[in-house]
Amino acid sequence: MKRFFYSLFISLAVISSFGFRGCEYIFCQLTETLTDLMLGHDSFPGWDDAAIGGGSFYFLNTVLCEEQIDTLSLNALRDIKSFNLSQESAGAGFMCIVGDAGTVFWSTDDGITWEDRSIPGLTENLYGFDFIDYGVNGIHAVVCGESGTVYKSTNSGGNFIWEKVNTITTENLNSIGAIINNLFIAVGEKGTIIRTSDGGQSWVDFDIADTSAHFNRLFLGVPVGAFDRGWTVADNGKIYATTNYGNNWFLQNSGVTTDLYDVIFRNGNDGVVVGAKGVVRYTTNGGTSWLEDPYFNGLTDGDIISIAGQDSVTATALIRGGSDNPGGTTMMTVSSEPIISVDDNNNIIPSEFSLKQNYPNPFNPSTKIKYEVPVGSFISLKVYDLLGNEIATLVNEEKESGNYEINFDASGLSSGIYYYQLQADNFMYTKKLVLMK
């Protein structure tokens, strides 16, 4: 079903080292109450993100403000995560959702189909989840929840066998992360941070003596290559961080006293936290200093409860309540111009083939596409419609190493979703663009 939306475009030249701030934002107002969000995968074309709310899973098109709903459970769903074994191949994406009364749902095809892998006999609610990658032996999982509950899976392939892990707390655990297969960190209410390095046989309790810090979300740097780092956000503007695999935690100054609900990082330095009353703070130095986002802080007076990064210049957030939509949830998609403008074939030699997200997107009638060539190669850049029909050939020739930008004029095309694909040597990558007239 389609919901109403409005978009605003701001002509600002922004140079930002994080890239989630800048030039464009789109609001989509939904009547449903969604609880968590994650970025999408290429294996469901036309849908940008996935979210959960109530007992349902949602595919979301954050540009056209459309949704596709799959009701999974009568129990409330709390957390969703994905793991892609190969970002370049469709169908390789694993997803898992956890929720109340031990609910676990598992997908091996990026959410197209789901299997119920709930924990037998568990009545406690589950609030957090993470994957554990055992490489050739498959993917295991660890979950946390109410009253200090932690379980881990002892086999892979989605046919989970769950094993209860005893912890040293009875506080609710709201988020959990795994650095390696036996090293888990969980955070929760009343300043709770606990860590195990032996799969849960023993735990260390980090008594931070701050019972007002009810931790809402944990982000470990493993997915972005910062294996030793982690951040957790809490009520009253609290951010705690680690730089040594969770062995020690220290307070960072967020500059706000409002509750913080989610945190994401692009690498070990560039991160964003979001929270109540539209708070958006960012850092470019790992959290040593947190600054007010000049463009999106206060853009809404609702509570920003979840944020997901689509790419280096685009993010989507869920907003709960607020004066514009007090009874529902609003999606906010924010995009900024690529960090550094580059001229055709400039002197900066890239280290690998790369295809950038077109800008602006959505566009009417023209948009710019940038790509990088590390060594002289024959380059093909083409545009296709949703059925795979070739619409335009933008590049089809030898290119020297360098950074390139090309303009795509879609004046003769109708509104809709299209794809552009770069091929060079053994490199092939496809991205989506949206024409809105």
What structural keywords apply?
2 domains; single chain; globular; 4-stranded antiparallel beta sheet; disordered N terminus; 5-stranded antiparallel beta sheet; mainly beta; 437 residues; Immunoglobulin-like; Methylamine Dehydrogenase, Chain H
**CATH second-level architecture of the largest domain:** 7 Propeller
CATH homologous superfamily assignment of the largest domain: YVTN repeat-like/Quinoprotein amine dehydrogenase
Query: Termini separation (Å)?
Result: 21 Å
Radius of gyration: 22 Å
- β-strand number: 36
Low-confidence stretches: 1-23, 40-46, 85-92, 337-347
Q: Main sheet?
A: 5 strands, antiparallel
Q: Supply the number of helical segments.
A: 0
CATH class of the largest domain: Mainly Beta
Shape: globular
Number of domains: 2
Instruction: Kindly report the average pLDDT value.
Output: 80
Helix content: under 10%
Strand content: over 45%
Spatial strand arrangement across the major sheet? 1-2-29-28-27
Given helix and strand content, the structural type is mainly beta
* CATH fold call of the largest domain: Methylamine Dehydrogenase, Chain H
Q: Short description, anyone?
A:
The protein has 437 residues and is mainly beta. 0% of the residues lie in helices and 49% in strands.
List the helices and strands and how they pair.
Blueprint: E1 5-9, E2 24-30, E3 36-39, E4 49-53, E5 56-61, E6 66-71, E7 77-84, E8 93-99, E9 103-107, E10 115-116, E11 126-133, E12 139-145, E13 150-153, E14 162-165, E15 173-180, E16 183-188, E17 193-196, E18 204-205, E19 215-220, E20 230-234, E21 238-242, E22 250-253, E23 260-265, E24 271-275, E25 280-283, E26 291-292, E27 303-311, E28 314-320, E29 329-335, E30 354-355, E31 366-373, E32 377-384, E33 390-399, E34 402-409, E35 416-424, E36 427-435
Antiparallel strand pairs: 1-2, 2-29, 3-4, 4-5, 5-6, 7-8, 8-9, 9-10, 11-12, 12-13, 13-14, 15-16, 16-17, 17-18, 19-20, 20-21, 21-22, 23-24, 24-25, 25-26, 27-28, 28-29, 30-31, 31-34, 32-33, 32-35, 35-36
